[in-house]
Design goal:
Elements: H1 6-14, E1 23-29, E2 32-38, H2 40-44, H3 53-59, E3 64-67, H4 70-83, E4 91-93, E5 99-101, H5 113-127, E6 134-135, H6 139-148, E7 152-153
Parallel strand pairs: 1-3, 6-7
Antiparallel strand pairs: 1-2, 4-5
């Protein structure tokens, strides 16, 4: 499971206005304020992590920014470890912003793999977290589909639906992001 908007979702739990306007979280990087996280609306308007705050304001003048609290994100992920333990006895962090659950032999407890995905999705919704889920034969395949593909249940021998090519978002590889 991958929480693509974990930092802004965490903030939105305390401040609902975060979800109704373009909202970004900022960190200082080499003397410049840079976007470290964005909410879904800001992303839809073309803002993404790594962009300078000045460039972001030029693109979307009504965007709101505030300091990022990575320690708060880490604390939330630690709490989520125990919350998602109800689905599997083996839950681990998958940094950044993800968890891996070994669901081998667990799916039948939820009515199958689809039932398990739906139960996890419902818990995420109750917690106010946007998530992309994938179940695959290997943890690596599930991670790739959750972070860069469509997610869902990936049949053995397949890397994902043929009609949904994997595309890497610009913020997924920090070394590929342009720097001034």
């Amino acid at each position: 499971m991958w929480f693509a908007f974990l930092p802004t979702d965490r903030l939105a739990r305390a401040r609902p206005e975060v979800t109704t306007s373009p909202w970004v979280l900022l960190d200082k990087d080499r003397g410049a304020l840079r976007l470290s996280a964005v909410n879904a609306e800001a992303l839809a308007l073309g803002l993404s992590p790594g962009l300078t705050w000045a460039d972001a304001q030029a693109q979307v003048p009504h965007a709101t920014g505030e300091p990022h609290d990575p320690a708060g994100d880490a604390a939330l992920l630690e709490r989520l470890l125990s919350a998602f333990g109800r689905f599997s006895p083996m839950v681990a962090l998958d940094l950044p912003h993800g968890l891996v659950l070994d669901v081998t032999g667990c799916a039948h407890l939820f009515g199958g793999e689809m039932g398990l995905l739906q139960a996890v999705q419902r818990l995420c919704e109750r917690l106010g977290l946007q998530v992309r889920l994938a179940i695959a034969r290997t943890p690596q395949a599930a991670r790739a589909q959750a972070r860069f593909g469509p997610g869902g249940i990936i049949a053995p021998g397949r890397t994902g639906p043929a009609s949904a090519p994997c595309r890497l978002p610009p913020w997924s590889c920090p070394s590929a992001m342009p720097r001034p």
